[in-house]
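Cont'd.
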Amino acid sequence: MIALSAIRTRPTSYVSGLLIAIIAIAAVFAPLIAPTDPYALATVSILDGRLAPGGEMLDGTIAWLGTDGAGRDVLSAILYGLRTSLTVAISSAAIALTIGLIVGLTAAFYGGRLDTILMRVVDIQLSFPAILVALVLLALLGKGIDKVIIALAIVQWALYARTVRAAAMVERRKEYFEAVTCLELSNTRIIWRHLLPNSVSSLIVLATLQTAHSISIEATLSFLGVGVPITEPSLGSLIANGFDYILSGAYWITFFPGAMLLATVAAINIFGDQLREIINPRLAK
Amino acid sequence: MFAFVLRRGMQSVVVLFVMSLIVFSMINLVGDPVDMLVNPESLPDEIERVRRDFGLDQPVYVQYWKFLTGALSGDLGNSFVFGRPALTLMAERFPATLELAICALIIAVTIGLPLGVYAGLRPDGLGARFIMGLSVLGISIPTFWLGLMMIIVFSVILGWLPVSGRGETAVFLGIESSMFTLDGLKHLAMPATNLALFKIAMVMRLARAGTNEVMAQDFIRFARAKGLSSRRIVRAHLMPNILIPIVTVVGIEFGTLIAFATVTESIFAWPGLGKLVIDAIVNLDRPIVVAYLLFVVALFLVLNLVVDIIYAVLDPRVRLQGDEE
Amino acid sequence: MTKSILNPRGFLSALAVGFAFSTSPLMAADLTVALAAEPTSMDPHYQNLTINNSMATQVYDALVLQDVNQKLIPGLAVSWTPVDDRTWEFKLRPGVKFHNGAAFAAEDVVATMKRAANVPNSPSSFGTFIKGKTFEVVDDLTLRVSTKKPYPFTPNDMSRIAIIDSAFVDATTEDFNTGKASFGTGPFTFSKWLPGDVLKLTRNEAYWGKAMEWDSVTVRPIGDGTTRSAALIAGDVDFIERVAPSDLPNLEKRSGVTIFKSVSNRLLYLTLHMTDEPIKPYVTGHDGKPIVSPFRDIRVRQAVSLAIHRQAIADRVMDGLSAPAGQFSPKGYIGYSANLTPDGYDPKRAKELLAEAGYKDGFKLTIHGPAGRYSNDTRILEAIAQMLSRIGIETSVETMPASVFFKRFSRGGPNKTPEFTVAMSGYANGSGEPSHPLRIFIHTKQKARGYGPGNRNGYSNAKVDKLIEDGRASMDIAVGEKAFIQATDIAMREYALVPIHHEIATWAARDGITYEHGALDSTFIHNVRAKK
C-alpha cells in the first residue's frame, strides 16, 4: 500500500507503469485487438508480402503498419509477437529468479562447503555460452516457445544466484545480523525476513536488466536460426527477419517491431528503477 | 591467502573434469558430424571410413577416455573440419578476440563509470535523466541489430569505417595486434563499440545504483558534515564502496566479452574465437566446441578467483572462505 | 536522419550519396574478393567440399577441366578417348611447369592419385573418384586409366582431382596450408593463407592458359550476406558472390555496381514419404492421431506440387532469384529433359485430387527443413506451409540447424530410417555427370552397390532402376544420356520428389569488372576479368 501511494507521487513511474499496463493488456488481448491472425497460415499469403504501411491486402484489410516478407500484417504480428516475447522473457526470468534466489540464499546462509559447491556450479553455468545451451536444448527438444523459455532460464539463473549471494553475504557480515541470529529465530524466518529483503534492491536491478536482456537474447537466437518457430514470430524474430529487407527500403518490417521492443523494454527498465528506489528503505527520505 | 588459492585451484580441476564430462556427452547427443563432412556424392563406404578415422564408431565412453588421456598430455584433439589441433586453431584466433574484448572493456569502463557516477550524484538532474535514458536504450537494442545498423550508417552511408575483418597488425612490445595501426583501429572501432554497448549501459547503471546507495548512507553525511570536499568524498568514500559490485560484474563481463563475442564476430567477420566456435557449432566440429568450452570454463574459473581476491582486498569485511575456521 | 530512414526513397538516396563518397578508382592490378564461405584447407586433396574445390582450381589444374556449365574441357590433358570398353587414354599437355619450376608429366598424375585417395583424417576423401581405377603410364605425355567394368565417367572423375608435383606425394596437409608444398600449375600461385581472415594469391606468370589481369588477389570470407553487400558498396572489396536476395534491388539500382546472374544447378525440392511403414508422427488426422502417409498416393503428391505457387515464391520470397523447376537440371544443363515443365499453380485441381484420394477434409502435417543452409530456406518453407494450408493440409513448419537436420533427415527415425514425412532439401550436381542425381536420389536404395544413398522417401521403380544402370554401363555417352532422360521423365511424373526451384546464382562487382558465369554457383576467381 505504501508502495502504491509512492507510485502515485512519482510521475515517471506512473507513466511507465501505465505504459506497461497498456502493453500487457495489448499482449493479453492480442487475438481480440489484432486485425488479422498472423499465425493462421491458411489466411496469410506471401502475395501480400512487403506491403508498405497503409497498403491494402488481398482480402481488403488495410495493413496500417505494412506487411512483412511472409505477408503478415505487421501490426497484428507485433501484437502477437509481443505476447510471445513477453511470455518468454517473463517466464524465463521468473524461473531463473526462483532458482537463483533459492540457490543464492541457501549458499549465503549455510556457507561452508555447501556454499562452495553451489558457487562452483554457478561458475560452471556462467561459463556456458547461451547460444550453445540453446542449440543443444533445441536439438534435443525441437523448436518452440517452451524450449526457448527453458534455455533462457538455464542461461540466467546463475546470475541471480550470484547476485543474491553477494548481497546476502554483505548483509551477513553486518553487525545486526549477529544480533538476529542470537535471537534464535528459525532459519526460514531469518532468510525470509532478513537476508531476502536486503537482496531485493540488487535483484530488481538485475531482473529488469535481465528481462530486457532475455528479449534481446531471444531475438539473437532467432537471428542465428534457432528460437521460436518461423511461422509464429516473436518481436525478436520479426526484427531479425525484417532486417534483411532494410537495404531494399522496406524499413517497416524491422522498424515498428523494433520500436515496440524498445518501448516495452524501456518501460520495464524505467519502472524497475523507480520501484527500486521506492522499495529500498535506505533511499526513502 | 595461499591456502585459499591452492584450494580453489584444486576445486577448479574438479570443475574442469565435470565440465568436460558434461560437454562431451552433451555434444555427442547433437547431430552427426559425418553428415556435415562427407560429400553426399561419395562412395557408400566413405561415411564408415570417416567415422572410423575420427573414432566416432567407438562408444561415447571410449571416445571420452581417449579425449581425457589426450587432454592430460595437453592434446585436446584434432578439428574434424580443419584436421589441425584444436588448441593450435584456438591459439591462432585468440589474439583477435582478446584485443576486441580489451577494447570493448576499455570503452565500457571509460564511458560507463564517469557517466554512471555523475548520474548517481545528481539523480534528479536533467543530465542524469538523459544518461539513464541512454543506458536504457543501450540495454534494449539487440547487439546484432545495432551491429547491422552501425554498418549501414558508418560504412554504407558515411563511408567512414570498413565493414568487416581485422585490419593490419603491427608488433609493439612483442605483441602483435591490430591495436597498433591506424587501419587496425579503424577495423576495431565498430565491432568493439558494438560489443561494448551493453557493457557501457551495465557499468553505468551499476555505478549509478551504487553511488545512489552509498551517498544516502550515514558515513557520507558525516563526511559532508566534517566539511570534506565533494571531490574527496567521491574519491575516498564513494569509489571504494561502489567499486565492489562493479569489479565483480566487470570481471565476469570480461569473460563474457571473450566468450560471448560470437555474435559480434560473425556480423563483422572478425577472425576471432567466437567466429571459430560458431562455425564449429554449425559444422559440428566437436573437438573445437569441446576445447573452446573447456577454455571458457577455465577462463571463468580464473576470473572468478581474481575477482574474489580483489573483493577481499577492497572490502576487508568479506573474508576469503579458504581462511575461515 | 530519422526522416530519411523512415522514407525508403530518402534512405536510398542517402545510401547513394554515401557510395559516391566512398568510390575510389579501381586498382586494376589488385583484386579483392569477398566469398560467403572459406576453404577448410589449402590442401586440394583434403576434403571434397565445394569451396575447397573452387579455391583449388585457382592454384591447381586437373587433367580435365569443367567450364561454367560443367561441360568438360581440356586441362592438363589435351584429349581423352576410350580405347576399349574399360580403358580411357589421356594425352597430356606438353611444356607445362609447376609453380616451383618442375616439369609436368604422367608420373605426376600417378603420384597425385596415390596421395589424393589416402589423405590422413580427410573428412571427405577424393578416393571416391580414384578407387577402382588403374593408372598406367604409356609415356611422359600419355596415360591410360582403366576400370573393372565399363565406366563412361572416368573423364568426369578426373576433372575432380587437382594435380600436384610428384615431389610432394608425401607432403602433409599442413605443408599445403603453409605453402611449403602448394605448387600447382594453375593461373595463380599461393602466397599466404590466414584461416578465417585472408587468402592471398599472386599471378602465375608462366601459366599455360590465358594469363590473368590481376597481379594479386585477396580473398576474404564474409559470411553474412548484408555485410558482404555493404563491403562492396563501401568499396572494401571489388567483387562478391551470393548477393542476398533482399539486397539485390538496392544493388541493381546503384550506379557503379554490376550484377551477374545465372540459373544455377542448385535445386530445392521436397521429399514426400511414400511407403506404408513406418507410420510417422508428422502426419496426423485432425484429431492428432498419426495416420499412414497419404503421400503413398500419387494424387496426393501431385496435389502438393500443384498447390505450390512456384512463381510467387520466385517473385515474393526470392526477389526474382529463383526459376521454377520441374526436374533436377535447369535448361541447357546436362541431363535436362525437354519433355518436362514445372507444374503450374492450380489449387482447385489440387483440392480435387485430395478429395479423389479420400482426403476431402485434408490432414495435419509438419514439414521439416534446415535453417540457413539454402538461400531463404526457412521463408520458402513458410510459404509452402501457407500454400498447403490453403488446400486443406493444415501445415506447420519445423526448422533446425543443418547439422541437426541432416542427421534426422537421413536416419533420425526408428532403426536409423529417415525421420521426416515431408522435408525440404537441396541438391547441386558437383560432378557434371548426368546420372549423378538419378543414382543418388531416384534409384531404389541399395546401399552396398552405392545406389540410392539419398533416396529417403522409399521411391522405387524397377524400370527406372534398369534405365539408370544400363545408362551407366554404356561407354557411348549419347546412349547413356537418352536412358537418363527417360528415367528422369518417369520419376518426375511419379513425383519421386517435388522440385521447387533452381536458385539463381548472383555475383556483384564494381564497374570495370566482368565475370563469366553459368550453372555453377561457386565462384571461380580466374573468371573474374577486367573489362576491356
